[in-house]
Amino acid sequence: MAEVSGKKGSGEKKQSRKDGSLNEGIRLYKLKRWELAMAELLSVNSEHLNPDESVELAYYLGLCYTKLGRYEEALLYLEQVVTSSQDMLRSYQCRMALAYIYVVTKRTKMAEFELRRLAHNGFESAQLYTTLAYASWAQKHYKQAVDYYEKALDIDGNNATALNGLGFILVDTDMDLLRGLRCCKKAVDLKPQNPAYLDSLGWAYFKNGELLEARTWLRRAIDAAPDKKEIKEHFQTVSGDK
User: Fold this and answer.
1) Domain span at residue 241?
2) Model confidence, pTM
């Protein structure tokens, strides 16, 4: 009896260590301690996981790699979740993460494919349409991008990302300078510290011929993000240095 009891205790310890590493990794991820979370998750022995736990592990590893900008590793884990998970919400979240990675790595057609599939399956959201709009903008499909931003705002009229993106396109392409300026103003009202939004508002004022306001807002943008190339270029244009 003592020998059987001893073996069971060993198994319980192994299970506890496995659960502990997985749970600790998730806890650290939720605390935004990406490096520590990833290290903890990578220490999990996947051979001891059941199928649901394996998906959970892949999901959080994919998110950690995404947060750390290690996109190729992230794709491997996120795609694993998409093909294995029976959880529709989790699959949606992973497809959104995949689309984000495709956008930032300039694989915009692949991003568009993922997002269109989600929209077709009924997973509409403001985030989905703003990402689709950005992918369209990156391919210089400006009218299509405007349509997607409009759809995002139909869902969430105070979505700062959609307001900023729509406003910037409207002024940068001269489609509707006054409306573009109004959108950019509202985005900055919602998130006054965002350098991208400050930049868009400065550019909108410039396109509307209000140079003093343009310089004021672009100065704020460049002070907030001095290394951003596009902000520098806008500021140089407005200041007459270019």
Assistant:
1) 158-242
2) 0.72
